[in-house]
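Protocol step 4 of 6: structure prediction from sequence.
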Amino acid sequence: MDISVVVPLYDEIESLPELTSWISRVMDENRFTYEVILVDDGSKDGSWEMIRKLNAGNPFIKGIKFRRNYGKSAALNTGFEATKGNVVITMDADLQDSPDEIPELYRRITEEKYDLVSGWKAKRHDPLSKTIPTKLFNAATRRMSGIDNLHDFNCGLKAYRSAVVKNIEVYGEMHRYIPVIAKWAGFTKIGEQVVEHRPRKYGKTKFGLNRFINGLLDLMSIFFVGKFGKRPMHFFGALGTISFLAGTIITIWMIVDKLRAIAKGIHYRDVTTQPLFYIALVAVILGSQLFLTGFVAELVARSAHERNKYQVEEVI
């Protein structure tokens, strides 16, 4: 099969007939073999009944229904597990992503051999309250991830080699960072394509401003897990060592300074009345705690069933 299209959705009953018809037309015009996997994330507006009708009219349209709303990341991860196509395309169900972009995305994956191609909505139909935080979010993500060539990490329209979606796990609200997750998994050939951003035709947006706060926390989480997930002691141990040594050096300096003052008969303040004493005390305690945290994290990591699971590209 050439292409699997994964569409996570929540209360999008009005847009589904038009979206699936559009996708099918594009696929037929380009003679792609395909499947469309609609993942209903606990909709309450009758979206699942609509998916049943669409499936009855076109067997290439498939559906997965959650018992309740789990979020976009869960929907994508479940959809990825069900895909059978050589290339996987993701898009939102609100008709703001154009299926006409699919042929070019497919070409870049199959001919230019990209692992992942992410859409970039260079011209957005969104208010400033959404576009400005988005730009700040993308700038921070570029800096922390080292993926300098992407302008829009959170664009729903993306294309992947099948191997990518089968070897990554998307959870929580990590769908914003799929390019980062793919990079940490060893899929480093990541490209970008300018895509059309169409005005929302039906319904209303499901996302609020709180997603930017959650996004920052998720970015720090994915950065730590990706870099230190299998060796947490390298992170906590390094910080603990620096803190402990700083406290120890300050303590030694205070002791030497006091002994020197005593030897010269100079009045010296009590150690416990000096701010440096408390700074040194906090540094030593904090260093010890970070060290212990590192040891506990190592024990947890070594007990994990995926501790020796690595990405293998090819075996001959």
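Step 5 (inspection) to follow. The first strand starts at residue 3 and ends at 9.
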